[in-house]
Amino acid sequence: MSNAMRLLPRWYGLWTGTSEHESTATMSVRTNILPVMEGRGFAMQTEMFDPSTGTFLRGVRFALAVGPDGRVQTVGYSTEMGVFGLEETPDDEDVLALSGVTESGIQLNVTYREESPDTLMFSVFWRPHGASLGKNARPGLFGRIHRRQPWRPPAPQGGGNPV
Amino acid sequence: MTAQLAEFLPWIGVWTGVGESQAGQPCFVRNRFFPGLEGDGLGMQFEAWDPGMTTLFHGVRAVLATAPSGVMRALAYSTIHGALILELTPDDPGVMALAGESVAGNRISVTFLQEEPGRLLFTAFWRPAMHERQPNDGPRMTCGLTRAVPKRPPGV
Amino acid sequence: MTTPLIKRFHDWLGVWRGPIEWSDGRRGIMEFTFESIFNGQAIEVRTVSFDSEGAPLTRGWGYLSLDRNGRVIDNIYFSDAGFSVLHEVADDPGMLSLHGPLPGNRNLDVAMMVEDDVLAISSRLGEGYAASDARPRTFTRMRRIGRSLAPREEAE
User: Is residue A156 domain-resident?
Assistant: First the structure.
């Protein structure tokens, strides 16, 4: 089984954290991972916000599934780069690695690494398709997201209340 | 689909902002409206986080639907109040006002007011069952929400 | 971390579809979707039924959650019955039995069970104090569509 189809059911849920970008300040990140296509695939929906104003800054959505040829591929949309399709590439067993070229000619590489059951580290880097990595191979965007449980009031609010 | 429901369909999308919780804490709010019930309902997911998004103070998932009697209610689950059924109360155009009691008897009020296109004002409060006489003008959560509008990707 | 709710209902998550026969003799195809929300705090249940031509007949929505005693609360909406809050009543292990009131001195009881990738649901609308157990029931037996979400051991 591919890393993607093994890891994503485990990562099903709501994750938040922060992300750094070379040219912008820290952003808040919210990622929702959920089954789609009747459980045959998974969607990853990521939104990034300015933490001081709550303003939406960028968003990425993609669905990922096993194609008829057995390869794991995505169909996605990024507010920065437009439509893209990525393919899973081999990596360590705790890593989801995706790579491809966007419709606008950008080489895109995305990785999610499971640091712990409730922490994912991600990195995204991009360059014009065909350009070499150059001296600076640092990810363009990287961060950590954590699985969050809702806060619970310290005492029950009354009979029958589940909290 | 009822005309009342159709009024809220332009709100479908993601709305975010920074506001203050009923307890006076600063919070980041994300609210998403989405189609539900095969087009006969309006789904909602409300999240109030601390500004760093490390703690989900309150999450609510809901659908606004029409009963056979014609009354519109929001069926919801709240991470604080549990199972909820709130009623859409009459109000001005551009206002979604929901009110009701939780299974535990807490009194809850939720209002979205369209201030201008792309801008909603969210206010909400809840009062515990044992304080039924507490006035509605007590502390409440307030947050201005702006529609999440992405930058246009180059060449699109 | 898995919540007690997901521990109990992990095998239910996903999409289910199969024939339904209503208590009044109508027949159709029923689809249920169970989706974990707020990292397992509740399960959103969305339903739609179709006739043989694919036209929707009924729509429904609900939230399964646990009360502080660990019993299930299911607040539901069905397009033909309206809103209700159902509470779990004692039944055999593996069976989820729920009962609750509907407007107009009516009530609803529902029994649900998942076994061998089949979700069987039986429900009955009762009316008045003389509602009889002998009234016809609506019955559906749905098979899982697509794959289960994760190996059982990973959910625990």
Answer: no
